[in-house]
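Q: Fic family protein, please. Structure only.
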Amino acid sequence: MEAAIAELNERLGGLPAPKEAEFVWSDIWHLEAHHSTALEGNTLVLREVELLLEKGRAVGAKPLKDYMEVQGYGAAARWVYGQAIEPGDWHNGELVNLYEVRQVHARAMAPVWEVAPHPEATEREGPGAFREHDIHPFAAGMQPPDWPLVPALTENWVTSVNARAGRLRDRVGDTPWPEQLADLHNAFEKVHPFIDGNGRTGRLLLNLVLVRLGYPPVIVLKGQRPQYLAAMRRADEGDYGPLGEILARAMYDNLNRFIVPSLAGPARLVPLAALVDSDFTLVALRQAAQRGRLDAVQGSDGTWRSSRRAVQDYKLHKGERRA
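A: Structure for Fic family protein:
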């Protein structure tokens, strides 16, 4: 992961702006809207999510609430990525501020709130407003703080995130930086500042911070739900290793699946992981490189690199015998 981040920033010019590579970011936020809402029980499949977010078409016969959840999350994610890379004039240079915390929740939850507001919410607890209810302990025993403490604790969380900016950007500190990110994410969820939508808001805020740091966003897949919840429980007890690993792997996957292929020209050398497609797995490309069938080089870090042009050439001549 260290090498991949360094390569992104030093060789590929860092993350592209949404206006420069809209197709890349749209793929990411479609996938994120699908999986992040599915973690909370949403039933839309990926194709339904894509049609809803791109075409505004609600296909299928799912509950209206599910469509509005996805629509809200998609709008919030689009806002997050735009603000992360090209913030408005009001932004003061911090990784995150309290206004953004409330904006993310408001944008994510406003559509679904119109059709299915939280049954216990008062008029003062709508999208973007802190809860004024106490929350029962979670199944694993974690008890969110009493509601009068929420505004101050949320401000403390914002202050803590900004205080870590340098260490996170430089990837230094006594704790591995993915575990620092896990601590940051878990700390927000422990405050649980809103009456509903805390998981979605927390994952969006984590991605706001990551992209501002120059890192790929994370998508926790719906199939990872048991591992993710177990890792969050471990983090509640102060063990951030499992959650840090989930976040680091998600960043690495997004980097190689979406971002690096879009930044690399046909002849630019990139890690083989960024060249995997429906025809070739990473193992197949590595074997071809090692056997000299694929034009590739191995760096001092042990990573094999090739180009899209070389892979296309390999596909054309794969069945031919070498002289």
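A: Brief note, in case it's useful. Strands lie at 270-271, 297-298, 304-306.
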